[in-house]
Amino acid sequence: LRLVEPIHQSFTGMWVITRYADAKAVLRDSRFCVNKMQKNVKQKSHSLEQRDFNTLAQAIDKWLIYLDPPEHTRLRGLISKAFSSTSVNFLRPQIQKITDELISKVRHKGFMDIISEFACPLPCNVIAAILGIPVEDWLQLYHWSDKLSNILDPLSSLEDYEQMNTVALEFTNYFKSLIAQRQKSPQQDLLSALITVKEQNNKLSEDEIISVCMLLFLTGEETTVNLIGNGMLALLSHPEQMQQIKTQPMLIQSAVEEILRYDSPIQITTRVATEDIVIDDVTVRCGEKVLVVLGAANRDPAQFPEPDCFDITRVNNNHLAFADGIHYCLGAALTRIEAEIAINTLIQQLPDLKLSQDQPEWRNKVAFRSLKALPVT
Ligand code: HEM
Predict the structure, then answer these.
(1) How far, in Å, from the CA of 240 to the mean position of ligand 1?
(2) What is the best residue among 204, 329, 368 to mutate for testing ligand 1's pocket, by most ligand atoms within 8 Å of CB?
(3) C-alpha 277 to ligand 1 mean position (Å)
(4) Alpha-carbon dihedral of residues 77, 178, 89, 101, nearest 10 degrees?
(5) Which one of 31, 193, 307, 327 has the fewest CB atoms closer than 10 angstroms to its CB?
(6) What percentage of the chain exceeds 90 in pLDDT?
(7) What is the structure's pLDDT at 201?
(8) Which domains, from first to last, does the chain contain?
(9) CA 99–ligand 1 middle distance (angstroms)
(10) Average pLDDT, whole number, for the chain?
(11) How far, in Å, is the centroid of ligand 1 from the Cα of 51?
């Protein structure tokens, strides 16, 4: 598609963008918004509201990924400020400890599934640790966010939404009590920072803080699982690159960038035109939807020489795995550190890992590039 019709109108009327330059331009163009595209999610959550199930609807309403300026600008400013006050580099020892604990559980088994036994629990535990959630509650948070992650699946049914609303209610009550504790005695954690952060007399409300916490679990989890899983698969299937990283562990930073480009954890995002917009020789009409295929843009030969080649020493790797523009991923720095530590530690502590299946199965998902499992011996 990128070669023959890089700006293609599908039978649903939606425009599909596959070239790197066009994708970047759309993501940076303020004439494209995100809000209207959430009609689907909102319709479902509104029908829940009418049935007195509005906890989920309230949370979704305040998620950055679904907001446009000026609401987006205000919330993102406050959240970024709180996020940067708990510097992600400061978290390295904590992430290393969580990683070591997970590896110690599987070290002597002789086999493992990297996805379920390592990649899945890691990001949830890391976000829980950053927010300052007591360790004994981490497993509960993992179960809640696992159930809530169906929100990001466009095929979720109304019944799924009802179940998620119940979970959202439990999540909300849990965080209300934790917020009350932190208001009395603030700690050195992200939750306390979200409570105290201020910008020009602006603060986050309790509902907004809870909504941010839910969003962090959802956006930070599956994506990071995919990054670690896809990364280990790419390295284990390219033994020469694996050898290179074993002998030069400092290559891990560029290796993570290459994994993000080569098998982007999020493959697509969408926008809606707020006016008629010309892209190359095509006019996208006001109200029409645009599907930006990040995965295709990241394999565009006009931007990346030999794009289908997995090369951990690639230079100028300005991929779009974290999108671009005002919605650029807020967790990019955190996830980079998580993946660096997770992949390097796996490789160093379990240097003889081998794939049990030549072709592990991918999940049947459009938006996410996710493995079902990654069995290794
Ligand atoms: C936004 C990718 C990890 C928090 C985004 C977007 C992408 C993305 C593509 C933009 C969506 C759009 O424009 O429609 C990824 C990938 C990750 C990752 C590939 C890991 C490999 C994380 C983590 C967190 C996080 C660990 C937080 C703990 C967010 C938030 C937004 C976002 C809050 C919304 C920003 C906004 O709308 O202003 N991410 N993400 N992400 N991400 Fe990530």
Answers:
(1) 31
(2) 329
(3) 26
(4) -150
(5) 31
(6) 72
(7) 81
(8) 7-376 (1.10.630.10)
(9) 22
(10) 90
(11) 31
Question: With bands split at pLDDT 50, 70 and 90, how would you rate the model's confidence at 162?
Answer: confident
Distance 108 CA to ligand 1 centre (A): 35
Residues with CB under 6 A from ligand 1: 64-65, 76, 127, 215-216, 219-220, 223-224, 227, 265-266, 269, 321-323, 327, 329-331, 334-335
The answer to whether residue 287 scores a pLDDT higher than 90 is yes
Amino acid at 78: L
- Residue nearest to ligand 1 atom 42, measured at CA: 329
Q: In the 3-class helix/strand/coil scheme, how is 232-286 assigned residue by residue?
A: HHHHHCCHHHHHHHHHCHHHHHHHHHHHHHHCCCECEEEEEECCCEEECCEEECC
Would you state the pLDDT for residue 91?
82
Q: Could you count the other beta carbons within 10 Å of the beta carbon of residue 113?
A: 19
Tell me the pLDDT band of 57, cut-offs 50, 70 and 90.
confident
Helix/strand/coil percentages in the chain, nearest 5: 60, 10, 30
